[in-house]
Amino acid sequence: MSSSIFKNILRFVLLILLQVAIFNNINFLGYINPYPYILFILLFPVGDNRALLIFTSFLLGLTLDMFSNSGGMHAAASVTIAYLRPWILQSIFGIAYEYNAIKVAKADFGERLLYISILVFTHHLILFFAESFNFSDIIYILKKTLFSGIFSVLLCMLFITLFSLKRK
């Protein structure tokens, strides 16, 4: 088994365990629920199979749905950002994406922050809209997306920074 496959399996399992054991129990002021499990999708190797990314994103979301009893909301949000990921990478990283030369942990801070922010806020908007499934709750959905998104982006940036410092 190659090192990349082992790292991705380990990342998948650890992020699910952290999400279920710690982060699902955080509910600050009714609006802040961090979801750092999407780091698996964000850090999935760029050159790897896109169908594999979408399938594993579905498994990631479905696994979290089974633990959270959330009826497929995480799976829907995860598959959506996995599907949109190549276009986001293309628009942010440009020519580096064409040559599969992107390492998110080694990217410039601004590019990394923009990439993570777009995908996290997209994920959260889909997730919280699916949770409410009512346009009359749009203010609640937007508040929850904003506050949870900010906290999730900060956690993702922190995790990426900590684990990239370990390798140096």
From TrEMBL:
Keyword Transmembrane helix: yes
Top-rank taxon: Bacteria
UniProt keyword list: Membrane, Transmembrane, Transmembrane helix
Residues spanning the membrane: 12-32, 38-64, 113-133, 145-165
Protein name: Rod shape-determining protein MreD
